[in-house]
Amino acid sequence: MKILMFGRGVITTQYGWALERAGHDVDFYVRPGRIADFGPTVDLDIRDGRNSRKGKPVQETWPVTLREDLEAGHDYDLIIVSVNHDQLDSAVDFLHTRVGRATVLIFNNVWVDPAAAVARLPREQVVWGFPGSGGGYSGNTLRGGFAKSVWLGDVDGSSGTDRHRAVRELFTGAGFSISDVADFRSWLWFHVILDAGIMVGWLRMGSFDALVRSRPALQEVVRLVREMIPVLKAKGGTSKLGGAAATYIPAGLIGLAMHKLLTGDNLYTFIMDQAQATGHIDYEAQAIYPRDVLADARRLGVSVPRLEANEPAFR
């Protein structure tokens, strides 16, 4: 398959490397002028979690193919878009006249209605997914990792297409496992409120390390997520397993489980540590999640007093 990664970011670079290693042709679209900034290689210092719980270390200099132009007549089979949720609109604006016949995999958080977010793209060419990856760049060195599992989901019948099946086969053929999500709209929205709760805790504690080592701070994250679930419902989503856990399991028990997970010797902790160490998740990247949830809560008339009390941390 011929694949174009939209941007040379943390997620696109790691999956681009894995997919190229599986035998596919991978290019990166970057903004005009960025080829000179990036150069022809990426130094990888990552962990590959496809066959190891802690991730197999990968340290190599990887030659990459970058391009600064994209015309509608291109021959890419798949374009993978993984951007910050507030950048999705500009990505769609750029791509909607340049999609050609390619499938477009939306591979990131979405807080607006997913169908509306990509309305300018041909609906039958869009596939929805979410990565299990993270980290950050330190100069030209990418430090992070990716897990074995990726998520593929259904938005208004999108999972029943041949393009969805082709994307599924692409990842399984590259050694990934697939977690299928029937209601991806609600799943994405819950993921955003979970991130919002974590980011508030991170901002209040001053660092990710301080957050995960404080059980009271993690309990407060759970309470924040619990409070934000009605916002998800007011937007038209449904609260299922994750929401039920946050609602009915005592915050102390969930906080304890999060503490053990996030301070353990595992791939997820490593990825978050690298994101923190490289400065990839800066103030704006943290603040935008609770800021956007609070804006919708106010628009929809949903009471979120805990989130409002924390607004000075992310205003």
List the helices and strands and how they pair.
Layout: E1 2-6, H1 10-21, E2 25-29, H2 34-38, E3 41-49, E4 56-63, E5 66-67, E6 78-81, H3 88-95, E7 103-106, H4 114-117, E8 126-130, E9 133-138, E10 141-147, E11 149-153, H5 162-173, E12 177-181, H6 184-205, H7 208-212, H8 215-234, H9 241-248, H10 251-262, H11 267-277, H12 283-300, H13 305-309, H14 311-314
Helix pairs in contact: 6-8, 6-12, 8-10
Task: Describe the protein.
Residues 3-131 form the Ketopantoate reductase N-terminal domain. InterPro entries: KPR_N, NAD(P)-bd_dom_sf. It comes from Brevibacterium picturae. This is 2-dehydropantoate 2-reductase N-terminal domain-containing protein. There is one protein chain. Helix 6 (184-205) packs antiparallel against helix 8, helix 6 (184-205) crosses helix 12 (283-300) and helix 8 (215-234) packs across helix 10 (251-262). The chain has helices at residues 10-21, 34-38, 88-95, 114-117, 162-173, 184-205, 208-212, 215-234, 241-248, 251-262, 267-277, 283-300, 305-309, 311-314, and strands at 2-6, 25-29, 41-49, 56-63, 66-67, 78-81, 103-106, 126-130, 133-138, 141-147, 149-153, 177-181. The protein is built from 14 helices and twelve strands. The strands form two sheets. It has an eight-stranded mixed sheet, sandwiched between helices. It starts with a strand and ends with a helix. The mean pLDDT is 93. The protein is an alpha/beta fold and 315 residues long. Helix content is 46%, strand content 21%. It has two domains: 2-182, Rossmann fold (3-Layer(aba) Sandwich), CATH 3.40.50; 186-314, no CATH class. Helix 1 links the parallel strand 1 and strand 2 (25-29). The radius of gyration is 19 Å and the shape is globular.
